[in-house]
Specification:
Elements: H1 4-16, E1 35-36, E2 43-44, E3 59-60, E4 74-76, E5 79-81, E6 90-106, H2 109-121, H3 126-149, E7 154-165, E8 169-183
Parallel strand pairs: 5-7
Antiparallel strand pairs: 1-2, 1-3, 4-5, 6-8, 7-8
Length: 185
């Protein structure tokens, strides 16, 4: 392993020979820093690779995205489903109570073999993603059906829970609070 001092020395030699241009932190108002030194915290532009102060290899700066606007409600005909405790533009006039929708899914033998082979290489297993997307929608539909039976026109505070049953089946539960909501005037 090369020491920090040796890295600094090599970098300085390359600069003297003109092989590497000196990297400087961006001036305020110009280019946003995209890299930083994990040791001393100094920020650099995208062309820099090593910190000029301590010689440490720079890391990419993670830029946090602005928080997204509240999730748009899921609307099924005249029925509304939200994950928040309220529905924008509506008043909850009556709380009915807990409702849920449950589904249990299993891949067929061929799908399990394909998924197991795919898992050896790592990464996303598309067969299970597709299965879980269908299971999620089925659980939501069953939760809505349960809420309609109780006279609700919306479900707030919707959540999901998932569990594995004997390593071959996947259970998915959608649940929330059934309410009667009226549009604000």
């Amino acid at each position: 392993m090369v020491s920090t001092e040796e890295m600094k020395r090599r970098l300085e030699e390359k600069r003297r020979r003109g092989e590497v241009e000196p990297s400087t932190p961006p001036r305020p108002g110009t280019e946003a820093p995209t890299k930083y030194c994990p040791t001393c915290g100094r920020e650099y532009g995208p062309g820099a690779n090593f910190c000029e102060e301590c010689g440490t290899k720079l890391e990419e700066k993670v830029v946090e995205e602005k928080m997204a606007a509240p999730e748009a409600p899921i609307v099924s005909g005249d029925f509304i489903v939200v994950t928040s405790n309220y529905i924008p533009g509506y008043d909850v006039v009556k709380t009915i109570g807990l409702v849920y929708g449950l589904t249990v899914r299993s891949r067929g033998l061929g799908g399990q073999i394909t998924a197991n082979l795919r898992s050896i290489g790592g990464g996303e297993i598309k067969e299970y993603v597709t299965m879980m997307e269908h299971a999620r929608q089925e659980a939501i539909d069953r939760m809505i059906s349960h809420a309609r039976e109780l006279g609700a026109n919306a479900v707030i505070s919707t959540r999901f829970d998932s569990d594995s049953i004997s390593n071959i089946m996947q259970e998915l539960l959608a649940y929330g609070t059934a309410v009667i909501a009226e549009k604000k005037e």
